[in-house]
Amino acid sequence: MATIKLDSVKKSFGKVDVIKGVDLDIKSQEFVVFVGPSGCGKSTLLRLVAGLEDITSGTLAIDGRVVNTLSPSDRGIAMVFQSYALYPHMTVYENMAFGLKLAKTDPRSIEERVNEAARILQLDPLLQRLPKQLSGGQRQRVAIGRAIVRKPKVFLFDEPLSNLDAALRVQMRIEIARLHHSLDATMIYVTHDQVEAMTLADRIVVLRDGYVMQFGTPLDLYHHPENRFVGGFIGSPKMNFLPCDLVGDTAGQAVVETVAGTRVSTTSAINGQRPGSGFTLGVRPEDLLAGGGGDAEIEGEVITVEHLGAETYIYVDLGMEEPLVVKAAGNSAVSHGDRARVGIPAAACYLFDPKERALERPAYN
Ligand SMILES: Nc1ncnc2c1ncn2[C@@H]1O[C@H](COP(=O)(O)OP(=O)(O)OP(=O)(O)O)[C@@H](O)[C@H]1O
Ligand SMILES: [Mg+2]
Q: What pLDDT is attached to residue 165?
């Protein structure tokens, strides 16, 4: 059981500010994922929690106790990295037992804990193997086992699956989710893969350039992104963005005209915004209607079609920098060079103001 609380946490390396004031309130046993583009500060923030880096200013509390100056080994945490660096000359068993031996844990307790971790991670048949006799996923499980045997209150993971192939990542993702349910620990997990974030997290922290852009449940972020960055970051393929002018409102709901000349009566609250340019209409590929329909329509030439079997992604040129991406049924007969009509359901649209903040709107679906 451990809560983790960050108050105005900042970190600079010399003159470079990397973490620029982060507040987070993480609940006991919560699974929190830090996600964001490369270099945004995910690993640094995790290392601050671990105590591997000093906090420049602000406070970090674990279970209500300020731990800013506490050494990593006194924080009750265990960390699993991307490069799992097992000891090559030790067996799986010895790799997992090593840290406990160093800490002079009594031998019977070591045996119990290693066997328990091996059971949870399904490593029992492999305990006498050397790391070189294991697959990548099995090695990663041993690295997690080394963390489990220490019985930490908090697990920290930094991109633990990024060395694995796609199939193994999915399998390990399920195992980590299961692990979270079987241990009473708080977990923070860093990834730049938004699908991993959506599937594992109780709540997600979206980071950008040292700032928290939003902290919420996966569906919160999907349905109610607070800004354009989160709108574009959560969801795959990503949300389409159409530059637009705010032309007025109907009963308080914004009416816009996109670059392509399409007028859309959105469900976003106008909330004192003045008509003008610099707004962005956001609409997800899965909400667009291939073939037309909805409350407004837009037309363009199909430049690429991706048939994925279960679904089809159609890329439509609207004369903008990026094509409009439309998700269609798996058996869609659209092909390259066709003229496409695309329907826009007004209630599915997001609207971002010139400062890229989302206007409030009811959830769609
Ligand atoms: N020891 C250091 N000294 C100076 N700058 C650093 C140091 N460590 C990290 N940085 C800088 O801080 C920024 C954030 O780095 P960080 O490793 O936290 O990013 P990240 O979000 O984990 O990225 P990635 O997804 O690539 O792992 C980067 O611009 C990086 O260059
Ligand atoms: Mg990193």
A: 81
Q: Is the pLDDT of residue 188 over 90?
A: yes
CA 345/CA 57 separation, integer angstroms: 47
Give me the chain's average pLDDT, please. 93
CA distance 202 to 348: 25
Residues around ligand 2, an ion, CB closer than 5 A: 43
Helix (H) or strand (E) holding 131: none
Record the pTM.
Answer: 0.92
Listed by start position, the domains of the chain span 4-232, 237-352
Q: 288 is written with which tokens?
A: 């667009």
- CA–chain centroid gap for 148, Å, is 23
Q: Tell the residue nearest (CA) to atom 31 of ligand 1.
A: 39
What's the CATH number for 4-232? 3.40.50.300
Retrieve residue 104's tokens: 């002079």
pLDDT over 90 (residue 365): no
Q: Which two tokens stand for residue 247?
A: 């032309």
The residue whose CA is least distant from atom 8 of ligand 1 is: 44
281 C-alpha to center of ligand 2: Å?
32
- Measured between alpha carbons, how far is 350 from 365 in angstroms, rounded to an integer? 13
Check if the beta carbon of residue 78 is closer than 8 Å to that of residue 156.
Answer: yes
Q: How confident is the model at residue 259 (pLDDT cuts 50, 70, 90)?
A: confident
Q: Tokens for 262?
A: 């399409």
Residue 257 CA to ligand 2 centre (angstroms): 40
Is 237-352 a CATH 2.40.50.140 domain?
A: yes
Measured in whole angstroms, the distance separating CA 164 from the mean position of its chain's CA atoms is 18
Residue pair 45/192 in contact by the 8 Å Cβ criterion? no
Contact 298, 324 (CB under 8 A): yes
